[in-house]
Every structure is written in C-alpha cells, then in structure tokens.
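Case study B.
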Amino acid sequence: MIMMQVAFQGERGAYSEAAALEYFGQAIEPVPCPSFDEVFAQVESGAVDRGIVPVENSLGGSIHRNYDLFMRHQLHLVGEKIHRVRHCLIGLPGATLDDITLVRSHPQALAQCEHYIDRRGLRCEVVYDTAGAVKMLKDSGQREHAAIASRRAAEVYEMQILEAGIEDDEANYTRFVVLAREPIVPQSPAKTSIVFTLKNQPGALFKALSVFALRDLDLTKIESRPLAGTPWDYLFYLDFSGSVTDEVSHRALDHLSEYATTLRVLGSYSRDMQ
Amino acid sequence: MIMMQVAFQGERGAYSEAAALEYFGQAIEPVPCPSFDEVFAQVESGAVDRGIVPVENSLGGSIHRNYDLFMRHQLHLVGEKIHRVRHCLIGLPGATLDDITLVRSHPQALAQCEHYIDRRGLRCEVVYDTAGAVKMLKDSGQREHAAIASRRAAEVYEMQILEAGIEDDEANYTRFVVLAREPIVPQSPAKTSIVFTLKNQPGALFKALSVFALRDLDLTKIESRPLAGTPWDYLFYLDFSGSVTDEVSHRALDHLSEYATTLRVLGSYSRDMQ
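Model:
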C-alpha cells in the first residue's frame, strides 16, 4: 500500500503531526520538516502529497507568518482541522513529578504553561520544538529533566506522561489547514478562504462584504491586517461558507474582484464541524 | 512635582515601559507589575493613574488575553502607541560577543530571534520577562551569559549592548494601548475601539458595518473571534476613525446597538500617526 505523505513542521510527535493524524487517520506517512517554509516547499516540489500548518490559535490570534507563506507559494488550501492543545509534562519512564527540576519546550508551550511552571518552581530551557524536547530528554536519560509536549510525543519516544493538561488556559485550540498542489471539490458544508486588499477609503470594506451579504453567504472569519511598509493600506483575511465550485460563490468572488485591488483564493474545503 | 504613575507588566526596562516613555515622555513614574491582570487592577483601584498594555503585534496577531481583561474591567482606553520592537543582545560591561554561550529572555523574544540564536549556537533559558533577564544577568556577574531585551533595559541595569536589532523579522511592531478610569475627549484625528457580538446569521456583520459606511466613518481594524463555548457565535473587535464625543460617531454606535447582541465601547483616543 502506498501511503499519502504529509509534511509538517517539527520532529515526530509535534502538535502538527497529531493534527495530521486526527485529520487523515493513521494511513499516512508523516514527514517532519525543520521549518514552515520547508513544509510549503516540499508540497510545491511534489516531494510530498500534502502539508499541514497552523494558522490561528484561540489565545494568540492569527499566525501572520503562515499567511505570508501562502502568499509566496502557489498552493491550495484543501482542508482544516481544529485541534485542542493539551500540554503534557513528560519525564523518563520511572521518574516522578517530585524528581523534576528542569523543563524544556518550545517558547510558546512554555508561555502557555507559565503558571504551572511557576507553581512547581521549575527552571525552563528553550528548544524550538516540543517533540524535539522529548527526544532530547530520551537521549539525555536524566531523571530530573522533563519536556512539555503532546501525548503523541510521549508515545513516539516511549516516555512517561507525569501530568496531562498543564496549560494555564483550557480554551486553547489551534486551527490547522491542509495544503496541496491542486484544488479539490469539497463536500458540504464547505468553506472558502480568501486574502484581498482594498483601497483605503471609507466604505471600501462595506462594499466588499456586500458581495457576500447580497448572496446570503455567511462569513466565518474576517480580519484586517495593516500592510507592512504602507501603513494606511490593509490586507484582509476572510473565510465564508461556500465553495468556489458553487455558482453563487463564484459570482460573489467575481463581484468582489470589482472592488479588491488584489484577490487571492486560498482554497475551498470541507468545514471542520467540531 | 507630582508625576503621573503608569503601571506596566514586567520589570523596569520592559518593552511596555519603553512604550510608556515614548507615549508620555520622561515625566512619569513607571510602576512595574508582575502580570497584566495586576496592571488592570492597579488602574481600577486608583493605585496608579494610567496603565499600558500590548494588544497586537505585526507578526503574532491580536493578544486576545488582553482584550479579555478589557471585558472583565470597567476601564477606558485613552491612548495608543505603535512601538517598533528592536531586540538587543545584552551582556556584562566588558564582555564580547564571542564570550556568550547562554542567553535568557521571555519566550516570545526568544522565538522572535530564533534564527539569530541558531546561527550563533547559543543555549536558551526562559525567564518570564525580558528586562528580568537583564537584571538576572547583572546579579549573576557571568561573562558568558547574555539577555535579549530592549535598549532601555540595558540602560536601566547599566549593562552593555553586544548587538542591536537581532530580531529575525524587522517588520516587528507592537501596538500598545493606554488605560484610565475616566474617558477623555481626544484630539483629532481620533479613533474609537469597540467590542461587540452579533447573532450568527448571514448578513449580520454587513448590517453592523453599514452603520459606519452610511456615515463615512473609516474602519482601521476589524477582527472576528470565535466565542469559547459557543462555537457558532462571534465576538468582533473593531476600531473606527472618530470619537464618541462626535455626534456622528455617537449616532453610528446608537444605530449599531440595534443589531449587536452586546456592545462595549473601550474608548476614544488620539490616533498614533506614526
């Protein structure tokens, strides 16, 4: 059986890998990449079939860097997965909570467990990958060291979960999107993600949104972002319910192109109904 | 002379303090606080005159946690400052770049200097405050240790800047807002920040934006945020050009209250024209 190859950023056991397995099921070959740029490059070159990257988090907001990568690459968004982030404190097999004095993880994960780490009085060391911290723990063999990472990372490296759900805020969700070289015809309910720019004039956004309102197309995300270098111009991220393969969505986008100075359709995909 | 007291999160020399000094000039007494919650609490209780907190970053997006604190406290937004984040590698006086093997900073700052740190092959340790890392460096007296923090932090603790501008991405701006117990009458050009919720139905946002478009009020920010626990409802952050002390803005908000299920005016303030 030839398995679909899916690129993600990080080591085996990263949150992106966990999201990929949730989305595709077990019948894929996850391909670790050192950076998000590399995920896009691997999909674009055909080295892998799909990529998966995070685009927003319920606490931290939109990850503008990954939207920027979308704009630099000619890829299509073909799926989404909303993944609950549950951080685990992971130690060597046989270690106990009281053994631990030092914890390693990605800066974001450490930031999201700040109160827990404070309460336990642990020292922190940064590594640029949650799963990489677990791998490092395994290699070091030090009982007093721990890592913060996903349950999956503990499984991959056969380490022990000392405590699960140590994030300070439980409402911690990350939205991942799936990338491919070719667009798909999504099943309904579908969603379409676009990025566009408008002239900076009163009412410009109102006109832009009229193309959806006049056709009863619901919006599921809208966000303005100041354009670097041109402080009075804005880029907009917008998701709406519908697929570009529907006549009505197609017409709405055609209408939008009358107002937008640039318009890029990132892709249409089945909505994660979680 | 009695100086205005301004609360900020972090130790003396934090980026928030630098933003406060840029906004108010030198004639204030900055008051360090251990958390953002504490900044809001200090302003609310009257212990200080003003507070300053970050609400969005050009790379990381909106800081939802601080918007949440706005919703929990009865304070007014009375100013904004857009601050360019320039990270410095800071060592002991007399230390050289080649001496450094370990660097300490806040997780976000370490994440924003990832490539630089990688290139120099430095070990990283997390502390929950950039300026706190500089203070720790001073106390330790270790030549091979460094901190990543603002230029101001190096000045406050009389440490040496080994390299300035080490952030991976130069387009790194943070927008800070100023909090007070009472609203102000802003000078023009003014800006007003609001938070509102809408019923989840097609065209709801379009109707909401009509109240601004029909009155030629320009939008400078809009962002939807899924409401935790009610996955189909949305909260919106919106900034528009105008002040609630103007008749036209007042009417627009009155009109918006016909559509919005909740509406909260965070405040009107002079726009940072940087």
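Chain B has a mean pLDDT of 92. The remaining cases will be described in the next quarterly update.
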